[in-house]
Amino acid sequence: MNESNLERVLIVGVELPNDTIDIETSMDELQELVIAAGGIVVSRVIQKKEGIHPAHFIGKGKAMEIKNYCEELDISTVVFNDELSGAQLRNLEKMIDRKIVDRTNLILDIFANRAKSNEGKLQVKLAQLKYRLPRLIGFSDYLSRTGGGIGTRGPGEQKLETDRRHILREINNIEKQLKEVEQVRSIKRKKRDESNLPIVALVGYTNAGKSTLLNRLIEFDNESLEKKSVYVEDMLFATLDISLRRSKLPNGQAFLITDTVGFVSKLPTKLIEAFKGTLEEVKYADLLLHVVDSSNKDLDLQIKTTLNILKDLDVLDKPIITVFNKMDKVDVANLVFDNSLVDEKIFISAKNDINIDKLMELIEKSLPQKFKNVRLKIPFDKQSLINYFMKNYNVINIEYLEDGTILDLVISHIDFEKYKDYIL
Known about the structure:
The protein is an alpha/beta fold. The chain folds into three domains: about 5-155, GTPase HflX, N-terminal domain (Rossmann fold, 3-Layer(aba) Sandwich), CATH 3.40.50; about 195-365, Rossmann fold; about 370-420, no CATH class. About 40% of the residues lie in helices and about 20% in strands. The chain has helices at about 25-35, 60-75, 85-95, 105-115, 120-130, 135-145, 165-195, 210-215, 270-275, 275-280, 300-310, 355-365, 385-390, 415-420, and strands spanning about 5-15, 40-50, 75-80, 100, 200-205, 245-250, 255-260, 285-295, 320-325, 345, 370-380, 395-400, 405-410. Helix 1 links the parallel strand 1 and strand 2 (about 40-50). Helix 1 (about 25-35) packs parallel to helix 4 and helix 3 (about 85-95) packs across helix 6. The longest helix is centred in the middle third of the chain and has 32 residues, at about 165-195. It is elongated and about 90 Å long. The chain starts with 6 loop residues before the first strand and ends in a 6-residue tail after the last helix.
């Protein structure tokens, strides 16, 4: 897109004494979020403060300074690196005379633009409504003045400022629809469980390369009719909807891979709540691959953010492999991270196919399912079982006898118990 057509944005951050995140790192991330939302960052302002101003978030003098910047640099939108109250939004808009968007609304705006599935759209809309409900006064001016742009997608164009009761009814209606979607997902999950295939979930920071890795892993299952690559782009939150694909381990065992929405620091609480049903798919995984962007200068921020969300989902007891991706961009000797945050780890490049074979071996070793070498004899009246074993396992040897078919293969302990009557 031509830069002259992009929304011109000034980003603002406040550095407090007890901040755990480096302000420059956080502002760099905010800039990437603005780009993902379709804007261009013209300049940034950082103010050191002892505390947040209850009425204006920043000091009045700094607000007037920002107003002057906006006039000089022809800036239409000011994006703050933290969540603002309705009063702060209203006061800042009056002082600066520009559209004011906070970090939470920016992320919600990106999600509204990227959600493709019906469930994803409902989840984002629910989060937007819950976020905007207590801020209707703060939003009223610029929503009525502008026809779109950053921070105004989704419910913003549906006269949010008109009737609080109408919004509450809409929230209630969406929550009912999401419960129906959850019931459908539960049925699909039950069918997956019946297949006895182990599930590996990809988790991690947005733009760490999860979708690229998923596309690489499914290449190991040449026979799968479900093989289909997922969308990949070098951008924050390029994909939002959960993807489920099939692959095969080196021993021939089939398994399922699920991708999840990427995380980011200061991920809006409302968004986590709205996406909880989707995120909880991680709970049903047998193994988590925590994908990290090795080229990012603040690895600990990525790792801690993901681990904190996994802790909230109560899944830290699952086996986790930390996958340091994008090693084509960095030397392993130059990686600096808190080693106490990771246990099992591997260094790869999904894009350049570096160590993907070793990752598959590590997945096989780390899956809690145990595998057994067996010889099965399948009677002629159970020939459909042969198709099941051929599809889901690497059959080492097959012999056709007068009274049945002999198969030599490695199977999971679940199938071992299920089909032990056929074991020779």
